[in-house]
Amino acid sequence: MANHELMTEMLLEKYRGHNLVFIVGCPRSGTTWLQRLLACHPKVRTGFESDLFDMYIGPQLRAWRRDLDPQNSGRVGVGLACYFRNEEFHALLKEYMLKLLEPMVGQLLPGELFVEKTPSHALFIPEILELLPESRIIHILRDGRDVVASLLAASRSWGAYWAPRHVWSAARMWIEHVRAVRAATKTITKEQFYELRYEDLHAWNLELLKGVCCFLQLDWDEAAMKKAIAENQPEVAKVSGGTAIPVGGEVVQLSGPIVKEPLGFVRRARPGTWKEDLSLQEKILLWLLARKTMEEVGYHWAFPW
User: Fold this and answer.
1) What is the CA 34 to chain-centroid distance, rounded?
2) What is the CA radius of gyration of the chain?
3) How far is Cα 105 from Cα 26, in angstroms, rounded to an integer?
4) What pLDDT, on the 0 to 100 scale, is given for residue 1?
5) Nearest to 166 by CA among 156, 175, 176
6) Which segments in the chain show pLDDT lower than 50?
7) Cα separation, 10 vs 100, whole angstroms
8) Which fold has domain 3-142+189-268?
9) d(CA 205, CA 214)
């Protein structure tokens, strides 16, 4: 069946995202590592970060709500709501979203999943579940101190165009992502949401991967899981890049058919390296900014050193 026919079928059936999984988390929290592990499964398809909700669909849905809220604009009566009813706009937005999803889920066979990894989809979980109520979310939570240290290191090299350059902006990024997920989980069922810690993935990677597969209802032979883990260990990924992630669309003309991570993308990749990476001044500032949120999510930090 052709792509167009598959998408037409999904539109007719009111596609709800049953075979779509979103990996989210603050950037530099290990989302790529988990994606590459899952990409080894024979029934998992994946691709490069789409930014589908954080840059395309989510902002449009929020703009629609904002235009209808007099507390935001001081009045009601501006924007596309002057031309469309609520159900009309949502139908159009969902149709647009499904067409953008076509390269990801349009050719999936029964029992297959598409794993979409865009870290900052963490900020748009309500919008994802509003339009795709049967999709699932996997959140990777990492110690904010290590995330900040990794963000700062990225800003000085391959991530100079996007990564925050100062402790306070890096801390705000981590806090924003963590709090957005915490807020979203208040209305998410356990069948839709799974959270794991980066540190646990290091310490008990096989057990954690089994837990993720159980959540996704994927059968996976233990020997195959161990092989996937071995092929994607940080020290191996530094050299080989780990499991290949395919690229399509216009980007193929620019960089080729698989994701090529920049030099330094896989860094030290060990919990606790913030102790050497951050100066005392940076630690004190980070402690002042982030320790409350860290405590809330289980990372106790009594003193800034």
Assistant:
1) 10
2) 20
3) 25
4) 46
5) 156
6) 1, 12
7) 13
8) Rossmann fold (3.40.50)
9) 14
SS3 readout for 203-244: HCHHHHHHHHHHHHCCCCCHHHHHHHHHHCCHHHHHHHCCCC
* In the chain, where the domains are located: 3-142+189-268, 148-178+273-305
Q: 131-163: per-residue pLDDT in tens?
A: 999 999 999 999 999 999 999 999 999 999 999
If you ran DSSP here, which 8-state letter would residue 185 be given? G
Residue 45 pairs in a beta bridge with 114
For residue 109, give the amino acid letter. Answer: L
Nearest alpha-carbon partner for 31 in 269, 249, 268:
269
Which residues partner with 104 through β-bridges? Answer: none
The single-letter code of the amino acid at 218 is L
Q: CA 176, CA 111: separation in Å to the nearest integer? A: 35
Q: What is the dihedral of CA 288, 294, 300, 305, to 10 degrees?
A: -40
User: What pLDDT digit, counting tens, does each position of 11-55 carry?
Assistant: 545 899 999 999 999 999 999 999 999 999 999 999 999 999 999
Rounded CA separation 142/31 (Å): 10
